[in-house]
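Consider the following assembly input.
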Amino acid sequence: MSEKILMCGNEAMAEAAIRAGMDAYFGYPITPQNEVTAYMARRMPEEGRVFVQSESEIAAINMVFGASAVGARTMTSSSSPGISLMQEGISYLAGARLPAVVVNIMRGGPGLGNIAPSQSDYFQATRGGGHGDYRTIVLAPASVQELVEMMYLAFDLADLYRVTVVILGDGFLGQMMEPVDLDKRPAPRDLPVKDWALTGADGRKQNIVRSLWLQDGVLEEINLELQATYRQIEANEVLCEHYGTEDADFVLVSYGIMSRIVRSAVRKARCEGIKAGWIRPITLWPFPYEQINAVADEPRIFLTVEMSYGQMLDDVKLAVAGKCPVLFYGRAGGAVPTVEEVLGQIKKLAVPVA
Amino acid sequence: MQTIFERTPTLKDCPTHYCPGCGHGIAHRLISEVIDELDITSRTIGIAPVGCAVLAYNYLDVDMIEVAHGRAPAVATGMKRVHPDKIIFSYQGDGDLASIGAGEILHAVHRAEHITVIFINNAVYGMTGGQMAPTTVEKQITQTTPRGRDHNNEGFPLQVSEILAVMPGTIYVERCSVSNPGQVRHTKKSIKHAFELQMKNAPGLSLVEILSPCPTYWRMSPSQAMEWIEEVMVKSFPLCCLKDLSQS
């Protein structure tokens, strides 16, 4: 039996990335994810791998761009304001079809906001975030153990589809300590050879990594290829879990750390005889539209709960497609809905109309 | 019949998209010749900038990448750190390197990255229609300085090479031009020296600035443009070796 150790999310994720074979890490200090950079600074040289503290988040993502182009497994991590700065680079990664992993340990916004946990970057993460028609795979862990397992998955998915994979965590997840088994990992995928990588044209034709296509019609073709990849990801990589949805009158939808609070609230509601259940999207893109839509076949009330003022709410509405009412409860800016608050929301709905 | 001159293999046999009298073609040929003479085609990776030279990979037959505006030195850092045995060079214009990418080049030097930078200074943004660059000289008329660059409003020409040369992270900084055959030959020597330093893993960044004509946006004939480099441009950007630690 493998050993469980107590680690904070940021450090556990960093160690998992190293074990997942990450060759190069580039990062710029920002709270609440500084433990990642500090951990990498210590561990990467021990492994004979690359660590660079960049001069900005813009430089960090472009270092990732360079390292990925030469065939390395590479990542950066940051928090909300820093991720905004990286959007240019993430768009170029998409255009050039380079794999990368980007971790966002979300904090309160907009602007400099604060350093408290938040889920306010959902739109940015799931809609591409930068310019152009592209998507990034978005994984939303809810525990330190999941954070670890998702690092392995993230690198595999990035290499498999040649896309950026975003790990969307929050300040709680990064900072909190939980027992974790670092060796528990998803089954490795069969990955294609990186024959596009820039390694020097030694005995082969020149390789070019680019995102500029000026000739008439070519950029449309490139976009169609990207879209075909995205459809493949939507067909194959959706992850979600649910509880109590078979008989639930009230279905709560939440992700990440919020889903753990919702889980407790639903359990309490059940104890009080209220038929509540929950759905938790694990991949935010691709989003579990079909899974949620199927639950909406019965008359139910959906309640989306987020540490934001309603972002995933839009996707839940798209998924439910008007078949059931979709309500929202959320707080942000460092405020976190408590179990009692969420339970209160459920009870409000459960009161029979006089 | 004896062949006395031929196109160097790394320079592809195709017409370029550059304007008549543009200096990019000369710079591309010099880089290609150096790569072939040093026999490093199979381990060289080039970085094309945003700007007129964005399609440099259509002309240089080595592995190449196209990057966001100004970010080449950061991309080069990622590449060189992963593959220290490869020869990494960036090819950047003055808008790219001296304006939007000023931070990236400064910090690549700050970290003393073992890369080579070819810095093409033609005192304007060429690709976008001839706007003022940080390197536009005083009184020079551009699309965005229609009355001529006035230091009271637009400041002074930015001498990036001088700034970088005083930093410990550079090992070699030289400013050359392609304005006459002698200078072209000297520029080639400088490019070769810069690549050789990287091949020897010399501890620092090597940069060759090349004053290069843009007849289109200088509104001159190609020959007038060459004369303008020698009579006007060199006053703001004197031709000289600003630093060469390999000699000490």
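Residues 233 and 286 of chain A are 7 Å apart (CA to CA). Ask yourself how this observation constrains the way the partners meet.
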